[in-house]
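Hi all, long-time lurker, first post. I run a small reading group and we've been trying to get comfortable going from sequence to structure in the token notation. Rather than ask abstract questions, I figured I'd post a concrete chain and ask someone more experienced to write out its structure so we can walk through it together at our next meeting. Sequence below, copied exactly:
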Amino acid sequence: MAEHRSMQRAALLDAARTLLSEGGTEALTFPALAERTGLARSSVYEYFRSRAAVVEELCEADFPVWAAEVEAAMTSVDGPPAKVEAYVRKQLELVGDRRHRAVVAISASELDAGAREKIRAAHGGLVAIIVEALGELGHEQPRLAAMLLQGVVDAAVRRIELGAAEDPASIAEAAVAMALHGVCG
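-- Answer (accepted) --
Happy to help. Here is the structure in token form:
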């Protein structure tokens, strides 16, 4: 029985990822989840109390995987500048990944305080993996520099997701240049 519930929960989360990445916030409804998984709508409520609860669980499942991929990219290169570049590039590469698109599809304002806090904590963990490299580069406040660097990444992510006039590769190049050389460098 526990294995069956676990499989159903996983199927619901997978369906939620698909709905969010294909249709955004409006697409994530309990009737749509039920239809995608073959469950009765009332059964979906046995697993999740709200859309926010679905998103919260997606964040718990997907953020660590995303952070591990970014960290692996950083570990595969040598030297702080290469680590910064890998940090930026890997996150922008993951923009098309439906795990990422699903989480981005719902704005923090639609989530309850617990879900927003979990997302903040997950982002904090992502920022933490670049702090050491920025310290090695001589930043006096590497944590602040990491948060600002993540702001550059977040802006590039939004630009890519908006389908900006620039292609994603150009956006990635500009974000890496900003990260490595700043505005005037």
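A couple of things your group might point at:
The chain has a mean pLDDT of 86.
Residues 147 and 166 are 25 Å apart (CA to CA).
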